[in-house]
Each structure stands twice: as C-alpha cells, then as structure tokens.
Amino acid sequence: MKSNKWLIVLMSVLLATILAACSGNSGEAGGGGSDDKDIVSFWAPFSGDDGPFMKKIVDDYNESQDEFTVNLQIEPNADYYRNVDLAINDGKNTPDVMIMHNEQILSYAEKGLLREVSDIVDGELTDVYHESGIQGATVGDKVYGLPLDIHSLLFYWNKDMFEAAGLDPEQPPTTREEFIDYAQKLTDLDNNQYGFVVPTLWPQDFILPTIVAQNGGKLYEDGKANFASDAVVEALQFQLDLIEKYKVSPTDVQADGEVTLFLQGKNAMHLNGPWMLAQWESSNLDYGVAAVPQLGTEVQSVFAKSHNFVVLESTNEEKLPAITDFLKYVSENGLAWAESGQAPASKAVYESDEFKEINEQGSVMAGQFDNAVFSPKVENWELAIDPLREATNSVLLGQEEVKKALEKAEEEANKHLEK
What we know:
- The chain has two domains: about 1-150 and about 305-375, Periplasmic binding protein-like II (D-Maltodextrin-Binding Protein, domain 2, 3-Layer(aba) Sandwich); about 155-305 and about 380-419, D-Maltodextrin-Binding Protein, domain 2, CATH 3.40.190.10.
- Helices cover about 45% and strands about 15% of the residues.
- The protein has 19 helices and 16 strands.
- It has a five-stranded mixed beta sheet.
- The longest helix has 21 residues, at about 1-20.
- It is globular and about 65 Å long.
- The protein starts with a helix and ends with a helix.
- Keywords: Signal, Transport.
- One of its GO terms (cellular component) is ATP-binding cassette (ABC) transporter complex, substrate-binding subunit-containing.
C-alpha cells in the first residue's frame, strides 16, 4: 500500500507538471503542436540581445486581447534550423508560425514545407510592407513570408577621432574618394590608429556583396556563381588596397579585431549591422551612424537580409485566424522591435514619427530600403557562398592573389550549385 501511495503522488506531480507546461505563455517553451486553435506556437532564433524585444511584442499582444494566445519559444540561433528540421521530420511539436531568414525561404518553399501567406493580409502586401521586404520573401510568383524587418550594413564613425583629424564630426564620407581621403587623414601608424580596419571574416558576408552591387555586379548570374567577374574582383581588390596600398588598415586582422579596435578608439570608421547597437550604447564612444557610402563605382546599393514570419504547410487551418490576428498586430505595433536597433519592414511602423524618435540607426537603415539587394534565390546558396568567404579571408590576409582566389572559389561554388 505504501508503494501505491507514492505512485499516486508521483503521477499527480507529473500530471501537474504537464498541465503547467501546456499552459505556458510567451517566453516559455511549449505550445508547439497544440490542438487548441486559439493557441499559436511561435519559434524565433532571437537568442541574443534582441530576444527580450520580441518577447515584449508577444507579451503585449497577449495582454491586448483575450481571444488568442501566442507562445514564444526562442531557439539558440546557432542551432535554429537544425532544430526546425528535427521538429519537421519528427512531425511533433512543430511551430505554427516561425521566423525565417529570407535566404532560407526558397529551400523550404520548394520542399513544400511553407504555406503561401498572401491571403493572411487584407489588401495588397506592398501597402503594408516595404516592397523590398516582400521581394525577399517571394519565390516565383508566390509570397511565403511577411517581413519583420530589413537589416543591412550601417556606417559608424568615431566623432572624437574625426575632430582630432580636422574632419567635421557630423559629416561622414559618402563616396569612395571621400572615404579613402578620410581614412588616410584618420590613420596614425605611430599610435596604432587606423582610418578603417578591414575585417577578414564577418561581416564580409555583407560588405563584399554590398560593394559588388555598387559596382553594378552580381554574385550569381545565368545559373552559375559569378565570383570571378570584374565587379567582384574590383570589390575585393579595393579592400585589399586599403590594407596594402593606402595602408589605412592593419594586416592580419583576426575575428572581431575591427570591432575591438573601434571600441578602443583605434578604428575611426566601421561597417557593421544593427545588431551592434547594444555594444555601442554600452561603450563610452561618441559615435555617429549613417548610410553606407558608395564604395563601389556605379550605383548606390546595400546588401540586406530580412527576418520573416512564415507559416508551415502542416499548420492546422483552424489556427489561421489566430495567426492572422497576431501578425496584423505586429505589423501595427512593432515599435519594440525598432528599440532593438532593427528597422521594421511594416510601413505603419517605419513611417511613424515614433519610430524616428526611437534610435537614429533604425531610421538610417529604413532610408536604405529602396537600395536593398538580397541573396539570389537558388538552392544550396549558403553552401555555394562558403568558398567566397574562404577566398575573401585568404586574400585579405595576403595569402592568395585576388583573381586566382576568386576563380577557385567560383569553381567550388558551382559544384555545390550543381548538386
């Protein structure tokens, strides 16, 4: 009898735990695969400083009405798509709606895993979101994602270093010529001070494609990687020249070395994304933020990515009213996302006076929406881009010649694209 009593107690505890988990609210794991049509499970990869801002949006939505409940589950960014794939393959506890980067949408859509979302928004999508965001989520003539934001490079500079070099601290460079001139004036090798520290790794994923686009070039064309084209060669050679010819950058820059030097007041100009806001704000730097200068030779462009809300094809149709209500709310009440440093793609947000007052970098980034270019919509692009990353790194470290490195990268990339 004694053992039976303990068994009953144990079963009661387990039942209570299960019930508590199932009733979880935003910010808690759980909810995925729920049969309750009024409960939406929402997965996102915001495991960094941006996570609390998304949690606030979800919390505010849940408090704004009592008809639907959204359960936010934040997955580690590094393991996000692996966990998504495991859930999809298992067929259990899959999210009803999730965040997906624009470059991932094609692969999931062509496998029949995503639901077209055009009918989730009343009226024309481009009346609600910036056209560039919609284009980034379109495959063929179908839209599979509703853009949360469009994030691109931004130009940061140290105002104190500008003033010390005799430059106007409120006037950043806008052209290649001005950029080189400023970088040379800001460089003082005797004091280990540089005008622009060229990163050899991240965020070259954004920097090189930006300059290529500004050169009027494309990384992918006519069904193949186009890494050895004149526009790409010129873009990479320009960065190498900043190191070897103009000597405004140190050699052998290791991962995040350019960030460290910027924070130390030893790197006057810096290209990076909105995800750096928390670091900049916690430092004592007097810095400015502006649109990326036209470092290329032809046109003003900026490489961009976007976070998108996508709905899995397996999501129960009965959940769509709840999902629709939530996404409509986010499109109209996404100011918290702007507080993270991002630029929401919803016109109701980025065109509002409140948005412009939150932080300067969000407004600057929204001002670049019209010039945004995205990754090509091809299978295996993420694998194909790896050889370009390796070539860029080896060239900027002085280990390979520009043309040869890019030719080799192009050959390797096309092998991935042919699979």
